[in-house]
Design brief:
By secondary structure, this protein is of the alpha/beta class. The chain contains 18 helices and 13 strands. The strands form two sheets. It has a seven-stranded parallel β-sheet with strand order 3-2-1-4-5-6-7, sandwiched between helices.
Length: 413
Amino acid sequence: MNLSVLYISYDGLTDPLGQSQILPYLEGLSEFGVNFHLITFEKKEQFKSLKRVVEKRCIEANINWHPINYTKNPPLFSTLYDLRKMQKKALNLQASIGFDIVHCRSYLPAVVGHKLKLNHDVKFVFDMRGFWADERVEGKIWSLSNPIFKLVYRFFKRKERLFFKDADATISLTENGRNEILSWEEISKVSPFIEVIPCCVDLEKFNPNKISSSEIKEVKAQLDILKEEFVLGYIGSIGTWYMLDEMLDYYAVLRTKQKSSKFLFISGESPENIVSKARSKGIPKEEVIVKKVKHDQVPLYSSIFDCSIFFIRPTFSKKASSPTKQGELMAMGVPIICNSGVGDTDEIVLKYNAGEIVESFNYKTYNKISLDFSKYDKGKIIDGAHEVYSLKKGVQRYFDVYKQVFGKTIQKQ
């Protein structure tokens, strides 16, 4: 039998995240006979440029896409307005179709999904993605000194407990996040079903065997990187959580030990912002390269990294975070320099001997890191990515959750 699922996301399907962390899963699940109706919130420019491409993929996968315009301003009130639009659309679809499951990606969609469960007897999957309310505070988006934000924070922390208690299944990105939830007395008493599924990677695309030496040579020439130069690489935006200053501090140490080197950012960030910060730390501008590429080009560009780096602020909310870049880098066999205190990142790096873990951010720590990256087994790192981050395995695990939640036999189509 077919399973009818309403999937709700406040992230857009035309966002980079939507294309890497939403659509591939739904395409895979559709092959199992899952019939999706998908509500997303789309940013104007992204939607305009990518609507046709994403729409085509949805049609080919038999996904019914219901895009809604994302409202940016004014802060908070725009979110409440979008929440009302989300609820109205979900209720209209429920009335006309009658879903078996509502799958909610993060907390705002879960507000709507929770109501559908209580009022319409729909199975509720809470795909939490992280401790969202705490992320807003720790990311300095919500200040608790502001009584309105304090009220909103408390509202979502109360809702959070209800989501964990009432969800037919909760998806956590990390074991660390699941253990944190189960340590809460009122949650542990109800023994919730929590499945861990990290941010997965399409291993067909992130496959070093598909990249030729001539392609690598061409990219290095394009970026003005000499054959003998050591390349430290970074993938993705900088944003709220990634510690640009500390990563540059590490490179400043690296370049004193590795005389011929470059720091390559594969990112849409402003080159001026990164280069100016680098110069303030005594790093010449010609050693810092910032290159914006399409997501399907990331495997090629990351293949020229000798090693990679990402430092993430190790706050409470980051216990539940699974950096997408970790799976992508490991899939390419690239060693990683990262910090502890973020999801399961350090455990995975240590298990597969995939790089170096930083416990503190200072010169002494950075100076201890060996630059002999030949000691890392590229094959073992890739095997780790296939074991932990495989998109195919992730899709299967989501389907297993659906089967357990629905409680009936579902045959793959």
